[in-house]
Structure to design on (244 residues):
C-alpha cells in the first residue's frame, strides 16, 4: 500500500496542483493531508473543496493550527495574521468551515500516527525543532512511524538506542529499519521556508518499510500576485524571498 502524504498547503492552489500532479505519478493508494489546508494563501475555497472531495473517497485529512482558527477564535493572532484569517473566513462557505472544524487532531492507521505538529501535545501545535522535541513525540506514542508537518522543512528522525537525525536526499528511497521507530516531518506544500519555490511531499510504503521525500516547482509568483491583488499581507511569503 502506497501513501502520499502532504501538509501545510496554506491555500496555495499553484503549489497544491503541482504537487498533486507529480504525486499522482507514484501509483498512490491512499492520500493523507496533515493539516493547515488554509491560511495565508489566496485560494482557500479551492483547496478545501478538493480535499473534501478526496476525503469523501477515502483520503485522510487532519486539522492544523490554521484550520483551527476557522471559524473559531483568532484572537491570539498578530494583526497581519488576523487580517489573513478574517479574509479567509469571508471566502469560505458554511460547508467548508464545517469540514475544517470537524477534522480530527490525529489519525492512527495501524502502527502509523498522523498529526500536524508534535504528537506530545497536538492541541497546542508544538514545533519539532530538533532531537529534543522529536524524543518527546516518540515518548508520547507507541506508533512505529509518526508523520507530521507544521515545521515546513523536511526532517527524518529515528529512535533506536538513541535519537538520530537522517540526511534526506530528494527522490531517494530510505529504508525504515523495523527495529527502530521513526518520525518524519514532511515539509510544506504551499509555504516553503527554504527560499525555493517548491512544494514538498513524501511517498510512504509501510509494507516495504520505505519512505521517500519529493519536491516539485510551482509558480510562486502567480500565487504572490493573487495575494497582492486582494491586498493581503505577507505576499512575500509565497514568492522567492527567504523566510524567517
Amino acid at each position: 500500500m502506497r501513501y502520499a502524504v502532504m501538509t501545510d498547503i496554506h491555500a496555495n492552489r499553484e503549489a497544491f496542483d503541482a504537487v498533486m500532479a507529480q504525486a499522482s505519478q507514484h501509483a498512490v493508494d491512499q492520500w493523507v493531508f496533515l493539516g493547515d489546508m488554509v491560511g495565508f494563501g489566496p485560494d482557500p475555497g479551492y483547496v478545501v473543496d478538493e480535499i473534501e472531495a478526496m476525503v469523501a473517497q477515502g483520503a485522510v485529512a487532519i486539522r492544523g493550527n490554521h484550520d483551527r482558527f476557522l471559524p473559531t477564535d483568532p484572537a491570539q493572532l498578530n494583526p497581519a495574521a488576523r487580517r489573513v484569517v478574517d479574509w479567509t473566513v469571508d471566502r469560505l462557505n458554511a460547508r467548508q468551515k464545517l469540514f475544517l472544524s470537524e477534522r480530527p487532531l490525529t489519525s492512527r492507521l495501524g502502527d502509523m500516527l498522523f498529526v500536524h505538529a508534535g504528537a506530545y501535545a497536538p492541541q497546542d501545535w508544538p514545533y519539532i525543532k530538533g532531537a529534543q522535541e522529536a524524543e518527546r513525540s516518540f515518548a508520547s506514542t507507541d506508533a512505529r512511524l509518526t508523520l507530521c508537518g507544521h515545521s515546513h522543512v523536511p526532517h527524518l528522525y529515528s529512535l533506536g538506542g538513541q535519537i538520530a537525525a537522517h540526511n534526506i536526499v530528494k527522490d531517494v528511497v530510505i529504508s525504515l529499519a523495523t527495529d527502530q521507530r521513526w518520525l518524519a516531518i514532511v515539509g510544506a506544500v504551499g509555504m516553503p521556508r527554504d527560499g525555493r519555490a517548491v512544494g514538498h511531499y513524501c511517498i510512504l510504503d509501510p509494507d516495504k518499510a520505505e519512505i521517500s521525500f519529493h519536491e516539485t516547482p510551482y509558480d510562486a509568483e502567480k500565487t504572490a500576485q493573487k495575494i497582492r491583488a486582494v491586498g493581503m499581507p505577507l505576499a512575500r511569503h509565497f514568492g522567492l524571498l527567504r523566510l524567517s
